[in-house]
Write a structure and sequence with these properties.
Elements (H helix, E strand, L loop, with lengths): L2 E5 H5 L2 E2 L10 E5 L12 H45 L13 H23 L2 H35 L3 H4 L7 E3 H7 L6 H7 L8 E3 L9 E4 L8 E2 L5 E2 L3 E7 L2 E13 L5 H13 L9 E12 L9 E6 L5 H4 E6 L6 E6 L2 H8 L4 E7 L7 E9 L5 H13 L2 H9 L10
Parallel strand pairs: 2-13, 3-16, 4-5
Antiparallel strand pairs: 1-3, 6-9, 7-8, 9-10, 10-11, 11-14, 12-13, 12-15, 15-16
Helix pairs in contact: 2-4, 2-6, 3-4, 6-7
């Protein structure tokens, strides 16, 4: 067996969600002949069968909640359209109005009255008419926004009333489920999942397999995406200057990417700003803006459930873990048994190796004896490298050339000199 020694002190210097299980020892070892050619995790069938049974009532309750939220969601969307219509004074964006809805009727009446006042203003030039128009517009806007807030508040109350449903169902949404286990748990129940599992419907909404053993054979890869310049998404949020890749096997899914961390200097502690500035300096980058800092970040999303073979920690790493002090990028405890999201400024050695096309792997490690740092690899997933060097290299060039700084300044223009930050 190949012995892989991982220095605890070296790991402690990495970006970790949880420290490795030192237990008073200085080293730990992981034995594996190969990180890729491994049998299915030993507890896979049992864990996935339990998950499938547990998800039946959770997804049924989630469907019920979503049905209750549909009218509130539609209400909020309609009110947003009315706000836009009022701001632009363009009824084509909202017509026809629902005469049975007091808010819509009030908006329709406001528009007719406002157009009449506008005609009077043009004819007379009386500036007090414009003041009256502004006051009436603000009043109807306030009424529509208040109704939108009420709809949102009602939706939030309905969600809160379900307790931890959203959190508990997190490991059920979009996952592979074992059909026989689902059918068994569906006894006496009526739900979309139960109908599909029994064959009563074929919506294709749920991912069902014939047996738990089939789950580990379902694999997918998504190559590194092509980064674009910074801009705004359709939701008005910062987008672009990012790239990521994904790999999944069974119900374990990993996404790793590079994306900008935007920090408002006015909302950060001095030590946090110093840490981000040090990260910029280590990468040889500069970003000058009076209010914001922008630092390249490493983003990790790991969709996992309960351990599949007694694993204690996840390690994201280059190579085969034979040189962990240099190769481990990140690690996290498996204790939560829930999806993990993580982001921190990327280190230069990791960025350089990504740009060189070196593959990243996620390895789940089991430590059979407490206090003994002898570990076993349970499973390992390797991210695809297709397009990696070009995507990461292009992103580095975009950041280092100053173009990203220029694009950000267009989106968030610095205040004029002497105007203050």
């Amino acid at each position: 067996m190949k012995s892989i020694r991982i220095l605890v002190l070296a790991l402690a210097s990495q970006q970790l969600l949880a420290p490795p299980p030192a237990a008073g020892q200085d080293t730990l070892a992981v034995a594996a002949d190969s990180l890729q050619e491994l049998p299915p995790p030993p507890s896979l069938a049992a864990v996935e069968t339990v998950r499938s049974r547990r998800c039946v009532p959770l997804l049924a309750e989630l469907d019920r909640l979503n049905m209750e939220l549909v009218p509130l969601r539609e209400r909020a969307q309609r009110l947003a359209v009315l706000v836009e219509m009022i701001a632009l004074e363009d009824t084509t964006r909202a017509a026809p109005f629902n005469a049975g809805d007091p808010i819509e009727q009030a908006v329709a009446e406001w528009y007719v009255a406002d157009q009449e006042v506008a005609r009077q203003l043009v004819a007379s030039g009386d500036t007090t008419l414009q003041t009256r128009r502004t006051e009436r517009r603000e009043a109807i806007l306030a009424r529509v926004r208040e109704a939108g807030t009420a709809a949102t508040r009602e939706a939030e109350e309905k969600i809160a009333a379900t307790g931890n449903l959203i959190e508990n169902a997190a490991t059920c949404r979009g996952v592979l489920l074992v059909r026989p286990a689902v059918v068994e748990a569906c006894a006496g129940m009526v739900s979309a999942l139960c109908r599909e599992a029994r064959g009563d419907s074929a919506s294709g909404r749920f991912r069902l397999v014939g047996s738990a053993a089939e789950i580990w054979g379902v694999e997918s890869l998504r190559p590194w995406s092509t980064p674009s310049r910074l801009g705004l998404s359709v939701q008005g949020l910062l987008a672009g200057a990012s790239t990521n890749a994904a790999v999944s096997r069974g119900n374990v899914a990993l996404v790793v990417g590079l994306e900008p961390i935007v920090q408002d200097k006015n909302a950060a502690a001095a030590e946090d700003l110093a840490r981000l500035q040090a990260a910029l300096d280590s990468l040889g980058l500069t970003f000058e803006h009076p209010r914001f800092m922008l630092v390249p970040g490493l983003a990790i999303s790991l969709e996992v459930g309960q351990p599949l073979g007694g694993e204690s920690y996840y390690f994201l790493h280059f190579g085969d873990l034979s040189n962990p002090a240099e190769d481990v990028v990140w690690s996290a405890s498996t204790a939560t048994g829930t999806p993990i999201a993580y982001m921190a400024s990327v280190r230069k050695p990791a960025l350089d190796r990504l740009a060189a096309g070196e593959p990243l792997s996620l390895t789940a490690v089991r430590f059979p004896q407490a206090g003994v740092m002898e570990g076993e690899v349970v499973y390992s997933l390797e991210l695809p490298t297709f397009g990696q060097a070009a995507a990461v290299g292009g992103l580095i060039e975009y950041m280092s050339s100053g173009q990203m700084r220029t694009d950000f300044a267009v989106l968030a223009p610095p205040p004029p000199a002497g105007a203050g930050g």
